[in-house]
Design brief:
Bound molecules: flavin mononucleotide
Mean pLDDT: 94
CATH class: Alpha Beta
Number of domains: 1
CATH superfamily: Aldolase class I
Order of helices and strands: HHHEEEHHEHEHEHHHHHEHEHEHEHH
CATH architecture: Alpha-Beta Barrel
């Protein structure tokens, strides 16, 4: 029988909360708050956690049990476990080199890594590092020539899954980011400089890696932008509100799998299905966009029964542990993603952080499945109380 001792993770950090606490001591406050915070009053952020934690699983202690298998098939690929690494914009600001670290983790651990359009490594670089296993999250550029060029680059680099986002018609209203100058246009304040000096490990690595850049957008950006110019550029660059027409256009051109992320209602799930998408990620962007909206698990409870047999229904927002992944799968998700936990891991442990989080989650998920008497991830719904 396997137990936690068979899985590689650093025993000093047996929970995501331990990693979060350590990351907070290693990352300047403005960058940590950017990663950690929600929007407005942080209601959606905490609702994601509290409502997920209310999901209960039913153990079957006396049933014959032949061991558990975490392998999950998704879009024709076999993954080692039913979770992946969600896209995070400006990742390299939180920890230098983090997109590369996490793309490598994903490859080693048999998981999908999703690169953000506004990530700090180029899609070509991540395709190389992940050996063609990464997915690409595509924000819609306003200029049709750039829109087509970005799609062409993703296809040429060998991406098989494209993720469109629908929950960012506006920038989320995030008081922490506004205070620290990370909203658009960004500002470099004396307080931020002071915070950087207080985190010498982060500062040295950042000086070595160079200022984080929007690597995917570099070919389309004017040279030598100051911060105010960057704000104006970013504001005009994306056509933020998603529409059925824009999705249909991409569906027409993109030959690979197409996923819509940020779905939280039956209506949007229906539109995704009607437009021929292969899957959706039920998500509220980790509580960063609509404070007054539903938790992702509440949205999943509505959407999964109606659409899980028609397309691949996945979930993110608020998952912090193996039991949380099991709760989401039991509620009807075919797959899950985690955003902040992997970044806390990298912030806390650098290059080792991604593997640590993946190992921790695999071991915790295995333990829950053994505890409830579930052999395969697809059978978890039978254990929903
Ligand atoms: C700092 C930060 C930046 C993010 N940037 C993006 C992004 O560029 N594109 C995207 O699709 N989602 C983005 N997200 C949302 C994540 O992909 C994911 O939906 C969310 O983090 C899941 O919640 P969790 O952090 O509780 O796991 C971001 C999330 C965070 C925390």
């Amino acid at each position: 029988m396997r137990n936690a001792s068979h899985i590689a993770f650093d025993r000093r950090y047996p929970s995501v909360e331990d990693l979060r606490a350590k990351a907070r001591r290693r990352i300047p406050a403005f960058a940590f708050d950017y990663l950690d915070g929600g929007c407005n009053e942080g209601v959606a952020l905490s609702r994601n956690r509290t409502e997920l934690q209310q999901v209960q699983l039913k153990p079957s202690y006396l049933k014959p049990y032949a061991g558990c298998n975490l392998e999950t098939e998704l879009f024709g690929e076999k993954y080692a476990a039913p979770f992946g690494i969600a896209p995070i914009g400006l990742q390299g600001l939180i920890w230098p080199g983090s997109p590369e670290i996490l793309a490598r983790t994903a490859k080693t651990q048999g998981l999908p890594f999703v690169l953000s359009t506004v990530g700090t490594a180029s899609l070509e670089r991540i395709a190389e590092v992940s050996e063609g296993t990464a997915w690409f999250q595509y924000y819609h550029p306003a200029d049709p020539a750039v829109r087509d060029d970005l799609l062409r680059r993703a296809e040429a680099a060998g991406y098989k899954v494209l993720v469109l986002l629908c929950d960012t018609p506006t920038f989320g209203f995030r008081p922490g980011e506004i205070r620290s100058g990370l909203s658009m246009p960004p500002r470099m304040t004396p307080a931020n400089l002071f915070q950087m000096l207080g985190r010498p490990g982060w500062l040295l690595k950042t000086l070595h890696a160079g200022t984080p850049r929007f690597a995917n957008l570099q070919p389309y950006m004017p040279e030598k932008l100051d911060l105010a110019g960057l704000g104006r550029f970013m504001d005009g660059f994306f056509n933020k509100r998603q529409t059925p027409e824009k999705i249909a256009y991409v569906r027409d051109r993109w030959k690979g799998k197409l996923v819509l992320k940020g779905v939280s209602t039956l209506e949007d799930a229906e539109t995704a299905h009607r437009l021929g998408l292969d899957g959706i990620v039920v998500s509220n962007h980790g509580g960063r966009q609509l404070d007054a909206g539903p938790s992702s698990i509440a949205a999943l409870r509505q959407i999964a029964p109606a659409y899980a047999s028609k397309m691949t229904v996945m979930l993110d927002s608020g998952l912090r542990s193996g039991p949380d992944i099991a709760r989401a799968l039991a509620t009807g998700a075919a797959f899950t993603f985690l955003g902040r936990p992997f970044m806390y891991g990298v912030g806390a442990l650098g290059n080792r952080g991604g593997n640590h989080v993946a190992g921790l989650l695999k071991s915790q998920l295995r333990q829950v499945m053994e505890q409830v008497g579930c052999e395969r991830v697809a059978e978890l719904p039978q254990h929903l109380l």
